[in-house]
Design a protein that fits this description.
The chain has 184 residues and is of the alpha+beta class. A hairpin with a 2-residue loop joins β3 and β4. It has one domain.
């Protein structure tokens, strides 16, 4: 009888060691607590050129300006947008649908804005600070429009997928299926 008892103990220990304990529902949904996850960063430069000599033909002379600026743009995914129905668990497999990637941060540091060239001749007035600020707004708008020609959102989505896979592998899942949403 003692031999049977020892064999049962050995089997219990062996099978309990091999069992992969999966996380609780609460732990699975903790990913949402991360919130906004920026996974990609680009630095983009722009040159803004204005030659408004032709705009005011009544005045003699020229007014030209060349301003360079640089912006840092971050993109990522807002994990707090994940809903309960976006996560499906079956066995050691988890399937998660991610929200679309978006621009999470856009900043233009004043240290990265430089007047490269300014030329005023004849009877023309110097550029005012208000005019320079308006040119910078045009540059910011142009940079934001150029974001559509970059891969920043795709990179952010791919990097978020890699993060999610690592996150759930550490929880003990063997297969992680990530469904990426595209921006509508």
């Amino acid at each position: 009888m003692k031999g049977l008892f020892y064999i049962l103990i050995v089997f219990l220990v062996l099978f309990s060691c091999n069992e992969n304990k999966l996380p609780s529902q609460t732990e699975i949904y903790e990913i949402r607590d991360i919130g906004e996850l920026s996974t990609s960063e680009y630095t983009v430069g722009k040159i803004i050129k204005l030659d408004n000599s032709q705009y005011d033909w009544k005045k003699y002379g020229e007014r030209k300006i060349l301003i360079s600026c640089r912006a840092k743009i971050k993109a990522g995914i807002d994990l707090s947008q994940i809903k309960k129905e976006d996560i499906i668990v079956y066995g050691n497999t988890i399937e998660i649908k991610l929200p679309p990637a978006k621009i999470t941060s856009f900043s233009m540091d004043p240290k990265d804005v430089h007047t490269e060239m300014e030329s005023v001749s004849g009877l023309r007035d110097d550029f005012t600070q208000t005019e320079k600020n308006d040119f910078l707004k045009q540059g910011e708008k142009a940079i934001k429009e150029d974001m559509n020609n970059t891969t920043i959102l795709n990179d952010a989505s791919n990097n978020a997928e890699a993060f999610i896979i690592s996150f759930y592998k550490q929880m003990g899942f063997e297969k992680i299926v990530v469904i990426k949403s595209v921006k509508e």
